[in-house]
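User: Hey, my collaborator sent me this sequence without any context and asked if I could get a structure. I don't really work with proteins. Can you help?
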Amino acid sequence: MKMNTKRKIHVIDFTKCKKCNKCIEACPNKAMIVSFNSSCAKCVKYCSVMEVPCHPKEIIFQYEQCDACGICLKTCPENAIYRITPKKAE
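Assistant: No problem. I've predicted the 3D structure and written it out in structure-token form, which is a compact way to encode the shape of the chain:
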């Protein structure tokens, strides 16, 4: 799947995130999961080819399921979720 680099994606600022999981519970597409695997397949697919902040033992976005509705942004009490435009891999 080729990712549209013009589309903004959601990322989490883990310096603000308190891991309350409200964003995960609120997501209608189940596009967020808690990953405990340090060799996360999402990192291989997204983080290594673009400058996307990733913490494999934290909450991660499953971008192919995310429709960028923004519910997670509105739900987060810490304002830890924001949008970025991914940089194209060279």
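In plain terms: DSSP finds three helices and four strands in the chain. You can pass these tokens on to your collaborator as they are.
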